[in-house]
Amino acid sequence: MALLGILIATAPAAAQRKPQFPAQTGIYIEDLTTGEVVYDLNADQPRTPASITKALTSASVLSTQGAWTEFVTEVYAIGSIEGGRLQGDLLVKTVGDPTLESEYFPDYQGFADSIAASLKAHGIESIRGRVIIDQEALPYEEAPEGWVDEDLVWPYGTLHQSASFRDNKVILSMPSKRTRPNVPGLEVRHTPGKGGLTVDRKRGSQAVVTRGTPRQKGESIEIANPLPGEMMRSEIERKIKVDNQAGASQGADTLLVYGHESPAFLDILQSLMFRSDNLMAEGMLRTLAPGGTRSDAVEAERQLWGLRDLDVSLLTLEDGSGLSRNDRFTPYFLADVLVWMASSIYSADYVGLFPRVGEEGTVKNLLKGTRLEGRLALKSGSMKSVQSYAGYAIDDRGHPTHAIVIMVNGFTNRGAVKSAIEQLLLDKIEIPETSPLSL
């Protein structure tokens, strides 16, 4: 009972009095079959959402861009082909595809190999000019203000860029300062000192800063790669002979030699929702404002839901992943998004983006072994003093029966909060075997 008291008192004696909460908590649960409000606690107050922001991003993208849209990265030979040699440059027009060579989509890997094979098919064995990575499709932006500086050096805090490549991460080996894969031009500054090795990257800088003493046999650390375009260029240049002569393609012909198609947006959204991938969430957000800034995409999202008659007056967003500590919205708002999506033509695809509790993704251990295992499809969100869940209860056919949004801020004991949330859901959610909405 002590754990449950953190969020809600459910004993009969406490049922008639208002629960006392030591944390800022917002909860909203609605029965989609009847419209009944199952539970409403401070749901009109904006809270920090963390990664349940990805549920909003996914709803916005799926309902505007479609399930089967793809990123297409085109590669052009610019110049004449003479005797198996391109008298010019190879131009890679990047478009912000966050899955390019991603470890999470192995069936779509082999970008550099495919370029080399396509060049060979066009009779090109070597290039006189350069490999040019064109990143003009999206303006480069540093991290939002709400991202904590200490996040920026780690893979979960890596920046989305037009030329995102290999999940924008790399393994740094110390004390050699070498990276795997190789990233030409990546500066690593090391300051010897007592204590273990620390790694940092300052906002606005592309240099990685290390301090301390690596282990005696060396040390390898996976970090964010601030120069993914250089890694991309390096991989391509390893596959074909490039002379790197500047100005070789001026006034030359242009030939499309290869077009790389990404996974379908639906597959990208499911992957990022199951794994809570910040890079992919940021990449998908940017599709809402092609060629625009992150702020443009956020504004497009705000307008989208405003036009759908949702109250966006308390919506504050800086990103699509929820990594920003400045993001705020109410449980009412996200619940309205969930309700809208559940009644739309995108319902089945959208509900399928959420991992099932006790079985999958970041909620694999939530409610495991209970009657709700596999019967809730939820996105989790967590950061310091934040624990959130959003999604649906589902019937035996996988159709949504309830919309659920839980946002808890300002606590000190995460384990107790999660236990209390589990008990609340067990107490409040009754799922029919088959929802009337699925008939």
Give a quick summary of the entry.
With 439 residues, this protein is an alpha+beta fold. 23% of the residues lie in helices and 23% in strands.
Describe this structure in words.
The chain has 439 residues and is an alpha+beta fold. It is built from nine helices and 17 strands. It has helices at 53-65, 111-121, 228-237, 265-275, 278-285, 294-307, 331-342, 347-351, 414-428, and strands spanning 24-31, 37-41, 72-82, 85-93, 126-127, 131-134, 169-174, 178-180, 188-191, 198-200, 208-211, 219-224, 241-242, 254-261, 376-383, 386-394, 400-409. The strands form four sheets. Strands 3, 4, 5, 6, 13 and 14 form a six-stranded mixed sheet that branches. The chain is globular. The chain starts with 23 loop residues before the first strand and ends in an 11-residue tail after the last helix.
- Please bin the fraction of helical residues: 10-25%
Structural class from helices and strands? alpha+beta
Instruction: Give the oligomer, counting copies of the same chain as homo and different chains as hetero.
Output: single chain
**Alpha-carbon distance between the two ends:** 39 Å
Shape: globular
* Largest sheet properties: 6 strands, mixed
Helix/strand order, N-terminal first: EEHEEHEEEEEEEEHEEHHHHHEEEH
Strand content: 15-25%
Q: Roughly what is the average pLDDT, rounded to an integer?
A: 92
Count every helix, treating DSSP H or I runs of 4 or more residues as helices. 9
Number of strands: 17
